[in-house]
Amino acid sequence: MVKPKQQQLQKAEKKLLNIHSGAILIENKVNLLSRQAWFYLLYKAFPDLKTQDKFFVNLNELKEAIGYDSTNNKYLKQALKDLVGTPIEWNILHKDKVIWEVNSLLAGCKIEDNSSICEFAFSPFLRERLANPEMYTKLDLLVSKKFKSKHTLAIYCLALDYLQVKMNFGSKNLTLEELRKYLGLEDNEYPQVMNINQEIIKKAEKEINNNSDLNISITPIRTSNRKILGFKFEMSIKDEFVESYKAPKLVKQIENKQTNIFDGYEIKEEKVKTQSIKPEVKPKREIIKVESKELKEFFAEYKISITTSTIQDKFREAKEIFQDNFEKYLIFLMNYTKQELKRNSINSISGFFVSLFKDDVQIDNYFQELEKETKRKEVRKFEIESKLESKVKEKYNNSMSSDFEDYLEKNIDSIEDKFIEIVRNNVKKGFAYDYLIKNQNKGIIDKSLLLNYKKHIRMPLITEIKLYQEELGYRKPTFEEWKKENITEKYLSELRLEIEKLDT
Description:
Blueprint: H1 4-13, E1 16-20, H2 21-24, H3 32-45, E2 55-58, H4 59-66, H5 74-85, E3 87-90, E4 101-104, E5 108-110, E6 117-121, H6 124-131, E7 136-140, H7 141-144, H8 150-162, E8 170-175, H9 176-183, H10 193-211, E9 214-222, E10 228-237, H11 242-246, H12 293-301, H13 309-322, H14 326-343, H15 349-355, H16 360-426, H17 431-438, H18 455-465, H19 479-486, H20 489-503
Antiparallel strand pairs: 1-7, 2-6, 3-4, 5-6, 8-10, 9-10
Helix pairs in contact: 3-4, 3-5, 8-10, 16-20
């Protein structure tokens, strides 16, 4: 049995969609947001494409999946509208045997007032094609959401579709005409091939190499007189991702069922072994309680009895999945229930709360929230450690400013000749030259000036001589050397606490 924490990790690493090759090689007419949304809607619908004609997705889930972080749903609705209203030509590179095909990516989409649920549908024709792909590509939605350009996503999809996983290599040549059609470029868009190369191709190449699991190289195909006829696309899997491509079971997406949090779990009641002559005895199950004060207050306020068999069964299932995060998950469901209470009238608070336990959307939302919280903590930790390092480096710099002076005072007798030589040969202007050589001392260094208590005399001299500290035998310790010698863990802990208090 796959352990919950392992499964959570797998879930974060990949979110795979088996997508029809024809749906990959489509005209790139819709914008980036629309295409990312369509991929995720297909991901949600895929397990039931053969048996259902309508599908549902939580808007917050959709927004999280495509990286849409605005509370204003205007542009998201427009993106969905474009999926319904834009005819798209499929299989434009003729990889599949179908010669020509055109569809709207969605047949329809509906969001009721004050609802967080989006209802959507595909046309019967398209649904059949998507559910029974003769040729398909595994698209990682967590990678596709990272891209900032619709052209980058289109080129990444092309690379995926022509990648030979077993050989870890793939290539595809596109003429300029094919490329323009694939990218959905109108006649007046990027009329010069150099503009396509600079503004689309090179930027997409860089973005894919920096933000995906693939390496891609895109080179112009030229004539003998350097005229560009098209582009050659070469792609391979990055070394660190090779195993995940060769061993898809780690992120398994079954042909007709997407991976969800319950995959690999079989919740059973343990039975006590008894002799065959005795009736079977079930062990007495322990009542699962909660420790959280706010949970206790919530259950008391809405008269939710957590000792009922229904709720106890849900608690046991949830505890097996979430383990140490069990109560955090209950608090998450509690907060969601309270939000819905403010927006809508709920007849049975207890019934609504219990119904959330079997809601895969809520489970997904919870893991997304956990991921966000982890990221927030990582950012916070990074900020504190950066400030801590800056404070220590400031202390180091202050220490170094006086350390060289101390060295000169202690060693002036032994380095006097070298000191005089450096000033005469290297310091041709400024304080040291004017005050020590040119005028006052007739070419003789008065070393007592070095120890002069008057800051306006001492400091300019030190500043100039510091440039030659190594020649004078002084070796400045590195930051790490100084830190190891002078900074204790106790000091770091106290300074860290001080920074945390100031930032709260």
